[in-house]
Amino acid sequence: MKLEVAALTKCYGQTRALDGLSLSVAAARVLVLIGPSGGGKSTLLRVLGGLETADSGTAAVNDHLLSADPASLQAYRRKNGFLFQQFNLFPHLTALQNIALPLEKVHGHSPAVAKQMAEQALARFDLLDHAHKLPTQLSGGQQQRVGIARAVARQPEVLFLDEPTSALDPEMTAEVLELIQELAEAGQDIILSTHEMGFARAVADQIAFVAAGKIEELAPPASLFGDPKSPLCQRFLSRVMRY
Ligand SMILES: Nc1ncnc2c1ncn2[C@@H]1O[C@H](COP(=O)(O)OP(=O)(O)O)[C@@H](O)[C@H]1O
Ligand SMILES: [Mg+2]
Fold first, then answer.
1. Distance (Å, rounded) from C-alpha 128 to C-alpha 40?
2. Where are the beta strands (DSSP E) in 13-135?
3. What letter does residue 233 receive in the DSSP assignment?
């Protein structure tokens, strides 16, 4: 994927979540956002995915210039896939229904086609045994895997993942990270935020260190982790890598 982001600003009341953020990525399969809490990672993911509009600045994803026009933003959003930290699934629907319903209601597929696509998505990630379970009958890791299956059921142009494992224990974290790695290896373009530094290093083509609403540093993992240039990034890494 290709990104051209210039001087993006987004405020929530007095808070500048994005503060003139610029980012240029010529070609990357997986872009990972790391950085301190409150730095702007989630806001950037929402803006790049078309879930929110910035107050000013421009962003182009794969040469598609994001506009504030609701109809074109909605069309853009529907090309992408999303998964957030937690509470992704509708609690009153089974795993299968969770995937099939948006395919029907949002994307206009017939019930039969939606069900078939949902079954394929579950099968792809070894989740067919869980098709008829409600979210409460699944582990956190299984819920997130169903959430990812739903997000990729329509082969999104870009998959946006916001801290997909932050609510999970280590074993479940591993099963979700393995799935994400598998998607990346299959060619899926992904932009994700995470606090899992080992995973970031393994899966990313480019890592962006986001702090105070800006990209402080952008580099391939070996150089960002091995030889960070920005003092803020150095301090962040020395703290999170200490234990
Ligand atoms: N919907 C919102 N309403 C009010 N403030 C928000 C909202 N979303 C984010 N913020 C604020 O914007 C800043 C950046 O937040 P966020 O993008 O969530 O950072 P990160 O994901 O890196 O933790 C924080 O100060 C946060 O409190
Ligand atoms: Mg966040």
1. 36
2. 15-25, 30-34, 56-61, 64-65, 81-83
3. H
pLDDT beneath 70: ranges in the chain: 87
**Phi, psi angle pair for 188, to nearest 5°:** -75, 130
Q: Where are the domains of the chain?
A: 1-80+186-243, 81-155
Per the rule left: phi > 0, alpha: psi between -120 and 50, beta: everything else, 71 is alpha
Distance from C-alpha of 198 to C-alpha of 121, rounded to nearest angstrom: 27
Task: State if residue 12 touches ligand 1 by the CB under 6 angstroms criterion.
Answer: yes
Q: Quick one: fold of 1-80+186-243?
A: Rossmann fold (3.40.50)
Which of 48, 76, 52, 46 is CA-nearest to residue 60? Answer: 48
Quick check: CB of 39 below 6 Å from ligand 1?
yes
C-alpha radius of gyration, the chain, whole number: 18
26-63 pLDDT, tens per residue?
999 999 999 999 999 999 999 999 999 999 999 999 99
DSSP state of 130: G
Give the ligand at the shortest distance from the Cα of 212.
1
Q: What share of the chain is helix, strand, coil (3-state, %, to 5)?
A: 40, 25, 35
Q: Which residues surround ligand 2, an ion (CB under 5 A)?
A: 41-42
Looking at the DSSP bridge assignments, the partners of residue 18 are: 10
Q: How far apart are CA 151 and CA 206, in angstroms?
A: 22
Amino acid at 96: L
